[in-house]
Structures are given as C-alpha cells and as structure tokens.
Amino acid sequence: MNTMTCCLIAVLYSLCAFIQVATASDASPPAPAMISIGLALFCVGELGNLYHHYLLSTLRQPGEKRYKVPIGGLFGVVCCPHYLFELVAWLGIAIAGNHPALFCCLFAFICYLCGRSQATMAWYRKKMNGKDEDQKMPKNWKRLIPFLY
Questions:
Q1: For 25-72, what is each residue's pLDDT tens digit?
Q2: Of 39-48, 71-80, 135-144, which gets the smallest average pLDDT?
Q3: 3-state DSSP: the chain helix, strand, coil percent, rounded to 5?
Q4: Angle formed by the axes of helices 81-97 and 32-57, nearest 10°
Q5: How many CB atoms lie within 10 A of CB 141?
Q6: How far apart are the first and last CA of the chain?
Q7: Residue 33, exposed/middle/buried by CB under 10 A (0-12, 13-18, 19+)?
Q8: Terminus of the chain with fewer CB atoms < 10 Å: N or C?
Q9: pTM, rounded to two decimals
C-alpha cells in the first residue's frame, strides 16, 4: 500500500471520528435491543475480519515469495471477505450508536471498501494466471458480497 493511500485512509478514519464526537451530544439514546444487536454485529464483524486476516497471514510458508489465491472461510466466494466483515462491524457500530453521523460513516466505508475490493479483484485477474492449482481463482468469485458483488 502506498503512502498516499495510507494517508487517505487515516484522513477518512479521523474525519469519521471527528464527526461522531462533534455530533454525539445531538444523539438520542439507542434502545437496549439495538445496542445488543449492534454489539453482536460488531463482534461478528471483528472476529470475521480477524479470522480472514489470519488466513491471509498463513497463506505462504516462511520464505515463500509467490502469490496464491486465498482459500478458507469466505475466500471461496469473495476475494475480500475481511472487507465484508469490517463493514459488518461498522454496521454494528451504527446500529448501536443510533446516530445519522455513524450511518454516514458506514456509507463512506461501504463506498471505500467497494472500490478497494474492485481494485483487488482486478489485481487477482492480472496476476493470477491459473497455471498452478494455487493460482486459480474460484469460479463465480465476487468482490465483496457473496453471490452479488
């Protein structure tokens, strides 16, 4: 990831945090059920994100340089399941917080991660020639949302 991308991500996260803090006093308290639902979604999202990052981190053996198509978890149906679970976590935050600014942040992250997943899919198409078994992309592989996108 290049420096400009890192800076843009940092600015986006900082802007979202600023909006949440600046508008927090305007929020009506969420219902207890919504807090529970939001917390459950957040936990599922974070654990799914962690699991898929673990799968990515164990994809290659030590010293191995060659890229492989990830396997396991939801990698069989989408190329970026870790992004999907990050969005699930942000959905949980938005539901638990019950504030328009949080839903705006969720929308911003959906747009950003849809773009990143599109770029990731394009990279896989360019780099993975399918000559070897570990470089074959799954048939009907989607970018972010299983069976849809």
A1: 666 677 889 889 999 999 999 999 999 999 998 888 888 888 888 989
A2: 135-144
A3: 70, 0, 30
A4: 160
A5: 16
A6: 23
A7: exposed
A8: N
A9: 0.80
